[in-house]
Fold each of these.
Amino acid sequence: MKQKVLFLCTGNSCRSQMAEGWLRHLAGDRFEVVSAGTHPVGINPYAVKVMEEAGVDISKHVSERVDSYLDQPFHYVITVCDHAQESCPVFPGAATKLHWSFEDPAHATGSYEQKLIIFRKTRDEIASRIRHFLAEGS
């Protein structure tokens, strides 16, 4: 039976989407993975682009509200931004709640290339954290 994981952030546009994509890509046979936001704003095209560069397709992901998952049991609820951690609703069925704080690449400024650099950095940090999570035997 697959373990259920929910990645949660504020906008469900970048960090939680990348985390969902990475965990599906690296261990989708072991996990059922979704992501949501406290205030979803749609998927950021920079996130789609940098994940595509890494061979992970998140172009079909949908930005969803956390409310749609409140009645579901999860093995893990993982917040990936500080605001989501502070405003995270209670998930009575969640066996483990984790917090991984990543900078929000959506706040990057500068040229297209400069923004891509910031998104790539966040992408790689999330990939590293997912690999560590998997190595811990989760």
Amino acid sequence: MLGALFTSSTGMKAQQLYVDTIANNLANVNTTGFKKSRIDFQDLLYQTLKPAGVETADGNQVPEGMQVGLGVKPVAISKQFTQGTLTLTGNEFDVAIEGDGFFQVLQPDGSVAFTRDGSFNLDANGNIVSNDGFFIQPSITVPANTQQVSIGQDGTVSAVLEDGTISNLGQINLATFPNPAGLSAIGRNLLLETEASGSPSAGVAGLNGRGTLTQGFLELSNVEIVDEMVNMIIAQRAYEINSRAIRTADEMLQVANQLR
């Protein structure tokens, strides 16, 4: 009965973390480019009371053993990089990725971060930057006498100048990873490379498995509210049943303590 107390407590802790993960998904349902997280569980060690296949006193072999599990543990919280819905904004500097890939932005410390958030704009010097003022990589500067900016599906950025001429300003490249689920989220819609993610492969959008770009659109979160609500109900019921198991074990201990 003491084992049931500790085993059920691991279940309650696991479901609490599950609800925390769901809450973060729901909190970011309207976050541009956000990717929902999924939590994975594993069972813990087993206490073997009788091994399978042992021989009894009369020489017969036991077909099944006796093992008692010791609970559950969370082993991973991974991001699901399924495509989010695209929404029309009309802003010529908003760009959505259709398919795989990440935008690259330069952080103040000189390191490169990766994001699916394509809500870009211009700073005071005409540089295309993120909402935090981080330069996209490679950097692109829009001339002051620009009348219109065009971004192609391959990331080519062109500007129509006041005199009617068209100037090629550069190209927005996309980066892909062998294991994007291994990227480390640091907030502000940014992800960092890790050993688990592998090294980025940056290049032209639409080539080598990279997605294409769509100007004037943004990618919404891929969180499905109905799915998250169902998951929350499942987690809540699992939490309740584990607490009930603790209560039952406590009542059994109480009965044992009252034996005469």
